[in-house]
Queue: 2 jobs
Job 1
Amino acid sequence: MKKRANKALELDDPLCCCEYVDRHGGRSHMAACCCDCEDLDEACDRWMKREPQNPDSLSRVAATVTDRLRVPWISGAKKVDLSLIPPLILLPILLHIAALHYLLGIIVLTALPGMVLWYYYFTHRKKGRTLFFLSLALFSLLYMYYLFLTEVMPRGDVTNLQLGIITLGVVLTLIALVHTKKGPGYVRPSPADTHSTVTYHSPPPDVDSAYHNGSRHQVVIANRTSPAEQGAEPRAVAGSVLEKDSSRRNWCPFCKLVQPPRAGHCRICGACVLRLDHHCVWINSCVGQANHRSFLLTLIFFLLTSLYGISLVLRSVCPTQSLLTALLYCPDVYSQSSSALCFTCAWYSSIVTGGLLHLLVLQLINVSYNVTEREARIALRDKTGRSLIWGLIIDTGVYSHGFRANWTEFLNMGETLEPKALKPTDLV
Ligand SMILES: [Zn+2]
Ligand SMILES: [Zn+2]
């Protein structure tokens, strides 16, 4: 009801860049962010009178604050997600603390990935959406570039060509990221799915649709390609039963549609994604059929830029040592605050690069075996795939057609999907 009223309000008199529709459905202005907050007044009143607070009054005040925290936008002021902010404040502070002394450096650079991992598992368990990781990833990239310009360049050891290569790397990473954010390729309901809402039920909880997607799909195809062994009528009946069974198993109760083979439902995005690989918190989006290639490209551009940047920084702050030795032992680096900060950032970048390099290796192996991250996880859980080299390689054997054919399929997938025009707000 409120939504419809807001729509009418917007159509009658469009919002200016500083106006917005607040959480109660009323029209508000950014300049009025401190006015007329009954919840805050009530909480202050109770605090002054030393009366106990209402149990939900603080959460109502927090909801009002987050609702009023906005930035001007063309079609009305946009809400700022609070999870964007901590990385912007914490990262520079922590890196500067770590640059004070090597012992502080060890503590901060050990605690920082630990805290990020803890927050990752915390949000992942709650299946909540957060912009914290995207903010941390983007800000880390841009902050490292800023420090390269302001701290490393003035030392005079980096040529303009080397700066140009680093700048090109940052730009290419951002372009590939924008492309990845265009979307993973969502499953669209077909007219046949309308019938499915009445007929089919959700699959049993102990059976995962992803694995059966693959095997069932193959059984149906096998039926179609062996006419000599079966008569026309039984074959049609068997095919129809199997297809119905397959549809029942591939039915998504959340999106109310039948998933095509290899599609999966993402509980964080709340949508079914074609050839779902995984939900990546660092880009705040799923990786699927439409954006898997650009996701890999983003990783590759980032890693190349980062490795080259680290090597330039270490050569500048520790010219007497070889690159690997410099990262472990660099005498007198803490004698100057500038060189200490550069060295700390080289270490921070190395930790991030190490994590992403591991992810890239896993992704390249998965593509070589034509397995998605989701299928590999399910095969491990159900013990249906071959696990090689301590679980680094998971071969389900369902879709693999050989190394070359798998890569050809990967590089050509997504060609048929409709490209989506990207709005600036889609980046988050
Ligand atoms: Zn779904
Ligand atoms: Zn997702």
Note: The longest helix spans residues 337-368.
Job 2
Amino acid sequence: MTDHPARKQDQAKLLVALQDLDHMIRDAEDAKTAAKMQEMGFTMDGIAEIKKARVELTEHIKPQLLNRYQRVSQNYERIVVPVVKDLCTGCFAKVATSFRYEKTAVVTCESCGRILYFT
Ligand SMILES: [Zn+2]
């Protein structure tokens, strides 16, 4: 089976979604934010749903990408960042020009290690 470019782009989208879910889980589990959310009428039952969605999402992400995601998450809050004007928006290092021709691939910033995607 060949690696179709569209599928690679899908992987980047899934990683971004995973990051969003992780931020939601982290916020929900933070006592201060949780109290505020409850004040606004949100119940904590939502977290279980989010965690379930996270498990389902990870089933569609390639294991090697998940590993990379977990590794980067130990160092940075923002793990998956877009490339804007050839710069990594995590550390603002210039992204190798060879990546420019691989817009559909999921690549890693050589400077900070974050996962990059092209918009
Ligand atoms: Zn970077």
Note: The first strand starts at residue 80 and ends at 84.
